[in-house]
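Example 449.
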Amino acid sequence: MMSKLPGSTGISLLGDKSLEFYRDPITFCERRIEKHGSRIFQARLLNKSTSFVCSVQGMKELLCDKSSVFLKDPTDVMTYMYGDNIVTTNGEEASLLRLSLMNLFTGKCLASSSDYIKSVCERSLKDLSSSAEPQSVYPIFKRLGSELVLGLFLNVKAEETPEVFEEITHLCTLHWHGIISAPVNIKVPLWSSGFSTALEARDKLMEIIKEKLELEQEGFVGCLRALPLPDASCASQHLLLFISALIPKALASLLTSFTLALCGPGQEEVRERARQDPRYLDQVLLEVQRLWPPFIGGRRIASQDTTLGGYHIPKGSATMYVSYTVHRDPEVFHQPDEFRPERWSGRNAGQENLLCSLGNGPRNCIGMQLNHVFLKAVCGYMLQHYGWALSPSDQSLQYKWLPVSRPAELPMVIFTPLHDQASPQSHGNTQDIHTHTCPHAEARKGTSD
Ligand code: HEM
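Predicted structure in complex with protoporphyrin IX containing FE:
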């Protein structure tokens, strides 16, 4: 028997819950999961009936088993901002694009990036402890992410052409602001002035990208030129997507969460193990992605009447998987709010494919491998060179989740060079030394604003 989805989608506009969702998507979902006793429920979002998927099983059904029924939305705001591209395309066109573009993120292209990645880590992170002052890590990681992305994808290197690097970074930020000004204004269908600034920024970025594509033979741009793509604008549209501010923001989010999860003398043992054992570092990184996924999730449209978790889903309605809640599904992840890297060699060994921080199934992230290379390089560098602690120790680590997750107030962290620290200074945080808790996890547990 097919049953009706719990929850209500109300009436058009008045019943819309977009503002509530965008203000605090986690509480939005947690409240409804509890109220309906179900990790799949419905509400009205962006003035459309939307089912929310917060269970591992539901996410797998949506993104894997029924990926040919639940399709990407070609009218998504991504299409307005980035033009036609793989993210909002479906069917054979999407499969062919994926096949072509995947070449860029594996094998030769990826192998040739490792020296550059190392040099960016060294340059960005070598002075973390030199002033002996606490550092605001998020902007440092975001800049590092922009250097990786622009250097690898566009051959624009901050140390060689700093003005060009700064200009492109600025344009990417303006362009990005156009996207985030869009979705909440559902009751005002006119685009804000931020949107026209964003379009101007996009035009300037496209000029720069086209020039690069004409002139450069080497590296990623050279590889992209050589791909069999359907038309002339395809390469430039995708470069625009790859250099978007989203990727440095997502990287900075994960790197900040990693830093906080391993913060303080209480986590010294975890840092030491991760420093010695690359497999354990992988487990730490899985656990960071599980607890603090950068993106809230992804959206699909049902192309026909169907079911999800046994519930009826009507044709044309939207479905959204919410990574944060999927990753804390207690059916699969015991003590889901605890930071426990060991779960990945115990009960959850071999279950990495139950995460969805990089999507899942045939439309998962094509930058997955590259992302792993970035994370390992940066986290490896930090572990090899520093111990670190929050300073001051009583900062609010409450996260905001949209548009990209990070602590709402940027955390300050003090770094101690590894060679002259037997145990990092506690900076007044004596509690951590004794309890061996992760201040990050503690702070999250106590908040549900
Ligand atoms: C921390 C870094 C990253 C995160 C968290 C991330 C996350 C994601 C997620 C969640 C999806 C699936 C979206 C959905 O289900 O609707 C996705 C897809 C995608 N990602 Fe990433 N990504 C990251 C890095 C990258 C990089 C470095 C690239 C390449 C430059 C990239 C390119 C893509 C593309 C092209 C898709 C769309 C694939 C398709 O629609 O078939 N991502 N990513």
